[in-house]
Structures are given as structure tokens and as C-alpha cells.
Amino acid sequence: MSRQGGLLSGMQSSCPSPERNPGLPGSTTLKPMALELWDEDPGTVLAIVAHPDDLEYGAAAAVAKWTSAGSRVSYLLVTRGEAGIDGMAPAQAAPVREREQRASAAVVGVSSVEFLDHPDGTVEYGLALREDLALAIRRHRPDTLLLFNHRDNWGFPGSRNSADHRAVGEAGLTRPQTPATAGSSRPRILTLTP
Q1: 11 within a domain of the structure (yes/no)
Q2: What is the CATH number of the domain that holds 151?
Q3: Which domain holds residue 139?
Q4: For the residues of 101-168, what is the DSSP string, one character each?
Q5: Is residue 185 part of a domain?
Q6: Of 107, 113, 173, 193, which sits most exposed with the smallest number of CB within 10 A?
Q7: How far apart are the first and last CA of the chain?
């Protein structure tokens, strides 16, 4: 099997885990986590995230390695990131964020970038989102599904995860089997989580 990884086993993040510092009352010292490298051939990959730039935080290097080794990687973004630029109206920010995402995807060898147009900042976990993801998975037929952190936090104190990230990650894990997706294979799932 060729070495195409760079991702961590189960996509565990490299965020440090907290440990109390006995010398200072109430203080926390961050201790690095033990990590395992995931180095399997991912085949075709569908990366599903909530916002533009989510993949650039933690997965872009692995995606670049995969595409340079010949894997086809596609990006599916649930929002256009329209709430993501302070001082810019959402209608102006959405096309800027979309252009930035397409440009950064091209840098790592990804040419297929799709947006679902759910509202940024208010993505809701539910059947509609799960069906949108299931249909995209059916259309792309990936061997590997890459999801962002679906947990409440990033694994250390005060690290609350965004509601959009949690909703999209959980919907990717629990996408329904609908008539449109019945009979499709179940891809392996990698999640970027602590």
C-alpha cells in the first residue's frame, strides 16, 4: 500500500490535551497528545465541511499529498461562509469566500468544489442537511469521506466548537439511506477531531 497519509489515525487533531499544573492553583499546562499516522491510500475522497477555509485548518497538506499521488479529491461546503468577514455584508462576503476557497483548493490539486447554500452561522442538523449530504455522497461515490470536527470542543478547556461544524460533522456521520442513496457503498470515514 502506498504511503499517502499525513493524516492522523481517525483524523485525531494535534491539539494538546490539558493537564493540571500542580505548582499553580487553577492553572492548566498543555501536554501534547500521542498520535498515530494514518497512511492508507484514500482512493477517491469527498471532503465535507461547513465553511470555506475549514479544510485549510488541518487537512490541506494531506489533501495535497493525496492529489499529487493521483487520488481524486472533491470538496463539498455546506455554506458559502457569508458570515465570515467582519465589516462586510453577507451578500458581498459570499462571493469573496467562494473565490478564496476555489483558489486554495486549486493549490492542493482539487478542482471540484461545490457549495450547498445552507446559511452560514445557522446550519441546522436535521433531515434536510442529512439528505443533501447523502445525495452528494451518492453523486461522488467516494472511497473515503473526510469530515470536520463534530464534537462539542477541540479537546482542551475553553475550546468550544462552532455549531455549524458540529451540525455538518454529525450529519455526515448519520446521513440517511434514502431511495436515492440505497445500494451505494459506505465509504470509510475520517474525521478531524480531538
Answers
A1: no
A2: 3.40.50.10320
A3: 41-191
A4: HHHHHHHTT--EEEE--PPTT----SHHHHHHHHHHHHHH--SEEEE---SSBSSSTT-BPPHHHHHH
A5: yes
A6: 107
A7: 26
pTM equals: 0.79
Cell numbers describing residue 138: 451518492
Say how far apart CA 115 and CA 148 lie, in whole Å: 16
Nearest to 194 by CA among 32, 45, 52, 25: 32
Cα 101 to Cα 1, 17, 80, 115: the distances in Å are: 31, 30, 9, 10
Length of the chain (residues):
194
Does residue 187 lie within any of the structural domains?
Answer: yes
How far, in Å, are 58, 75, 87, 113, 120 from residue 90 at the CA level? 26, 22, 9, 20, 9
- Tell me the average pLDDT of the chain: 81
Taking the CB of residue 66, how many other CB atoms lie within 10 A of it?
27
Q: Which three cell numbers stand for residue 41?
A: 491510500
Convert the pLDDT of each residue in 140-191 to its tens digit. 999 999 998 888 888 888 888 999 999 999 999 987 665 555 555 678 888 8
Structural domains counted in the chain: 1
Residue 132, in any domain of the structure? yes
